[in-house]
Amino acid sequence: MNDEHATLPGESLPGTPYESAFDALFQPGEAANLKVRAKLMRRLSAYVEEEGLSQTDAAERLDTGQPRVSELTSGQIDRFTIDALLNMCAAAGIEVEVRFPKPKA
């Protein structure tokens, strides 16, 4: 899965001047937060799929409960904070890198 181009429902907004639906619908700070959460959720969902984990096994590896894994894999972005998602990444041994690209002119 190429997580640079995969989208959660409602994230991509092709054919518009907006980079994503988040940019179209939210203030810049909230849109940025949602985009980070979406990327983390995509990566964690891909991890669960790549490892062939049941939700119960994924919950153990991600140091969370099975209901949280269900929310994660069904894209319920409003149920997660960046902190919670980073904690799950750490529990799974997924390295997270923060980049600051140059602003678009």
Which terms summarize this structure?
about 100 residues; mainly alpha; 434 Repressor (Amino-terminal Domain); about 50% helix; disordered N terminus
Task: Write a short abstract of this structure.
By secondary structure, the protein is mainly α.
Walk me through what this model shows.
This protein is an all-alpha fold and 105 residues long. The chain has a domain at 21-92: lambda repressor-like DNA-binding domains (434 Repressor (Amino-terminal Domain), Orthogonal Bundle). The protein is built from 5 helices and no strands. Helix 2 packs parallel to helix 5 and helix 3 crosses helix 4 (66-73). The protein is elongated and about 45 Å long. The protein starts with 20 loop residues before the first helix and ends in a 13-residue tail after the last helix. Residues 1-7 have low confidence and may be disordered.
* Global structural class: mainly alpha
The dominant shape is: elongated
Main sheet specs = none
> CATH topology of the domain at 21-92, what is it called?
434 Repressor (Amino-terminal Domain)
Low-confidence regions: 1-7
* Rg value: 14 Å
Strand-residue fraction?
Answer: under 5%
Going by CATH, the homologous superfamily of the domain at 21-92 would be lambda repressor-like DNA-binding domains
CATH level-two architecture of the domain at 21-92: Orthogonal Bundle
Task: Count the DSSP helices.
Answer: 5
- Give the H and E element order: HHHHH
Q: How far is it from the N-terminal to the C-terminal residue, by CA?
A: 31 Å
